[in-house]
Design the sequence.
C-alpha cells in the first residue's frame, strides 16, 4: 500500500498522464483496433462451413504451403548469413565497414515495389544474374525460388540488427575463461558464444519469418502469378478483393491475422528471454 | 605459453590472437562470405535500379519523370506522407510520454498493441479500411442509399461526392496505419532509459508542464525523434501493398509513386518503371545516409555525457 501511494505521488509531479494516455488510446483505437475489429465482424457474417470451405480451398492451401515454406527457408538462410554479417561487423576491421553497416538496412529503406521490380529484372532470363543461371537449367523468375530470393532480401536486416547489439555486449572474459581452460576457438564459439546468441538469433529469425509471411510488394513481381504454384497468401487475398468477393478475402485474412498474432506473442516471449539473458550476464 | 599467461602479460590485443580470436585465414573467409552475400543481395539490386533507369538515356529518363501522371503520383505521395508522418509523430511523443514517464497497469499490452501494424500483412492493412469505409463495409451499411441510418450525413456525402475508399482519404489512412508504430518504437525505449529525474527537477524548480517538455524532454529525445521520423517517412512514401488495396489505381488521380511504378511495369515500359523507381531508391539512400548520421551524432552525444 505504502509503496503504491508513494508511486502515485511521485507520478503527480509530472503532468500530462491523462492527456497523453487518453490520446494514445483514442488514436490506437481509431487507427488500429476498430478497423481490425471490422475483419472479425465481417467474418461473423459467414457460417462456419462457408468459412472452413474458403480457407481450405485448394488455391489457399497451396498458398499457405508456399508462403510458410519460402518464408521459413528465407529466414533460415538469413539466420546463417545474418550471423556471419553481424559477426564480421562487430569483431573485424576492414575497408568500407561503415558503409557495409549502413547498407544492411537497405531492405528496410527500399520500398517493396522497387525491390520487387529490381529482383524480377535481375533474375529474369536476360537479367544480370538470370542469364548466368539459365545455362545451368535454373529458373528463378516466375518460380518458387524467386519468392525465396525476394523474402531473403527483405529478411536480412532483422537477423543482423537483433544479433549485433548482443554480440557487442558479450563479455570478453567469458571467452578468455573458456580459452584459458583449454577450449579451442571453435569450441569457444560453439559452446560459449552461440548459446548466448541463441535467444537473439531466434528473435531475429521469428521477426524475419513474420515479415516474410505478410510480404507482398517485393514478391509479386518476381513470382509471376501461376495458380497453385507461385501464388502467395497475400496475393490470394488481393485476387478475391479484385473480384469484390469480400467474404472470401476476409476468411483468408482472418487465418493470416491469427498466425500474425501468434507470432507476435512468440516474438514478445523471445525478446523477454533475450533481455533476461542479457541482464543476468550483466549481473 | 598457456593462454592464461598470455592474457596476464598483455591485457589487450597482441597476446589474444591465438585464444580468443580467429586465425587470419578464417577472418578473411568470413569477411569474404559476408561481403559476397551483401553484394549479391543488396548492392547488385541497388546498382541495377539506376542502370536500368538510364538504359534509354538521360532524355528518356527526364521525359518519364516529367509526365503529368508521374507528377500527380509524386504529389499524392508527398501529400500522404505530409499528413501521416506528423500525425504519427504526435502520437509517438504522446505514447512515449505516457509509457515512459508513468507507471500503470496494462503497459505491456499497450506496447504490444502499438506494434500490431508491423506484424500485419500490408494487404490486410489496406483491406481493413475497405471493410470499414467501403461500399460493403460499416460505413456503406450506415450510409446505404436506400435506407441510411444517418440520412443527413449520407446526403451530404453524396452531394459532395466524398469517397474514402478508392480515393485520397483511404490512401492517407492506409499510410497512417502502416507507419503507425515507427516514432513510438524509437522514443519509448529511449525515454524509458532516460528516466524521469530531469523532468522532475525541472518541475520542482518551477517549470510548467509544457516548459518541461520543450526545454528538458525534447532536447533529450531530439535525435531519437528525428530517427523515427526518417524511418516513418521512408515507409510512408514507399508503401505499396496497403495503398494498392485502397487506391483503386486511377491513373493521374489515386496512383502514388509505387503504384505508378507498377502501372508502368505492367505496360511493359520497364525503363520508365525503373526511372520512377530510381526516385524512391534515391530516397532510400538518403534515408540510410541520414540514419547513419543521426546514429553518429547520438553516439557522440553519449560519449560527451559519459566523459562529463
Sequence:
Amino acid at each position: 500500500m505504502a509503496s503504491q501511494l508513494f508511486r502515485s505521488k511521485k507520478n503527480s509531479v509530472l503532468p500530462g498522464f491523462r492527456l497523453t494516455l487518453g490520446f494514445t488510446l483514442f488514436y490506437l483505437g481509431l487507427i488500429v483496433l476498430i478497423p481490425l475489429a471490422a475483419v472479425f465482424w465481417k467474418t461473423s457474417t459467414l457460417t462456419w462451413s462457408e468459412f472452413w470451405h474458403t480457407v481450405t480451398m485448394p488455391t489457399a492451401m497451396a498458398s499457405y504451403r508456399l508462403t510458410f515454406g519460402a518464408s521459413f527457408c528465407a529466414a533460415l538462410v538469413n539466420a546463417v548469413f545474418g550471423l556471419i554479417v553481424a559477426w564480421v561487423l562487430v569483431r573485424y576491421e576492414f575497408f568500407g565497414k561503415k558503409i557495409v553497416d549502413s547498407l544492411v538496412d537497405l531492405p528496410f529503406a527500399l520500398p517493396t515495389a522497387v525491390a520487387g521490380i529490381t529482383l524480377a529484372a535481375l533474375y529474369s532470363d536476360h537479367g544480370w544474374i538470370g542469364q548466368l543461371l539459365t545455362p545451368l537449367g535454373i529458373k528463378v523468375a516466375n518460380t518458387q525460388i524467386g519468392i525465396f530470393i525476394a523474402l531473403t532480401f527483405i529478411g536480412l536486416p532483422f537477423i543482423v540488427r537483433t544479433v549485433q547489439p548482443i554480440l557487442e555486449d558479450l563479455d570478453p572474459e567469458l571467452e578468455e575463461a573458456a580459452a584459458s581452460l583449454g577450449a579451442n576457438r571453435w569450441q569457444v564459439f560453439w559452446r560459449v558464444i552461440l548459446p548466448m546468441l541463441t535467444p537473439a538469433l531466434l528473435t531475429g529469425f521469428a521477426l524475419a519469418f513474420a515479415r516474410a509471411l505478410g510480404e507482398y510488394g517485393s514478391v509479386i513481381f518476381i513470382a509471376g502469378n501461376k495458380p497453385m504454384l507461385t501464388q502467395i497468401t497475400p496475393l490470394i487475398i488481393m485476387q478475391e478483393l479484385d473480384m469484390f468477393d469480400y467474404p472470401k478475402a476476409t476468411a483468408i485474412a482472418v487465418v493470416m491475422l491469427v498466425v500474425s498474432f501468434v507470432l507476435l506473442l512468440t516474438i514478445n516471449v523471445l525478446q523477454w528471454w533475450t533481455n533476461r539473458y542479457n541482464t543476468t550476464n550483466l549481473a | 605459453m598457456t593462454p592464461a599467461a598470455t592474457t596476464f602479460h598483455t591485457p589487450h590485443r597482441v597476446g589474444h590472437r591465438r585464444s580468443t580470436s580467429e586465425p587470419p585465414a578464417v577472418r578473411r573467409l568470413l569477411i569474404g562470405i559476408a561481403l559476397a552475400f551483401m553484394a549479391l543481395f543488396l548492392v547488385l539490386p541497388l546498382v541495377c535500379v539506376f542502370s536500368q533507369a538510364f538504359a534509354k538515356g538521360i532524355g528518356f529518363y527526364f521525359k518519364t519523370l516529367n509526365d503529368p501522371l508521374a507528377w500527380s503520383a509524386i504529389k499524392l505521395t508527398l501529400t500522404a506522407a505530409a499528413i501521416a508522418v506528423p500525425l504519427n509523430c504526435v502520437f509517438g511523443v504522446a505514447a512515449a510520454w505516457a509509457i515512459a514517464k508513468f507507471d500503470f497497469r496494462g503497459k505491456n499490452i499497450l506496447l504490444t498493441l502499438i506494434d500490431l501494424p508491423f506484424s500485419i500483412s500490408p494487404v490486410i492493412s489496406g483491406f481493413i479500411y475497405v471493410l470499414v469505409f467501403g461500399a460493403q463495409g460499416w460505413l456503406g451499411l450506415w450510409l446505404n442509399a436506400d435506407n441510411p441510418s444517418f440520412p443527413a450525413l449520407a446526403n451530404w456525402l453524396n452531394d459532395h461526392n466524398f469517397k474514402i475508399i478508392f480515393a485520397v482519404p483511404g490512401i492517407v489512412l492506409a499510410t497512417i496505419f502502416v507507419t503507425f508504430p515507427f516514432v513510438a518504437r524509437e522514443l519509448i525505449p529511449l525515454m524509458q532509459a532516460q528516466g524521469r529525474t530531469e523532468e522532475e527537477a525541472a518541475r520542482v524548480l518551477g517549470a510548467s508542464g509544457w516548459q518541461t517538455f520543450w526545454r528538458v524532454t525534447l532536447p533529450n529525445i531530439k535525435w531519437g525523434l528525428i530517427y523515427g521520423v526518417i524511418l516513418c517517412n521512408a515507409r510512408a512514401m514507399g508503401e505499396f501493398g496497403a495503398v494498392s488495396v485502397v487506391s483503386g489505381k486511377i491513373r493521374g488521380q489515386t496512383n502514388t509513386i509505387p503504384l505508378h511504378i507498377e502501372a508502368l511495369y505492367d505496360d511493359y515500359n520497364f525503363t520508365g518503371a525503373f526511372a520512377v523507381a530510381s526516385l524512391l531508391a534515391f530516397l532510400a539512400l538518403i534515408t540510410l545516409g541520414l540514419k547513419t548520421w543521426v546514429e553518429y551524432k547520438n553516439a557522440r552525444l553519449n560519449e560527451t555525457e559519459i566523459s562529463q
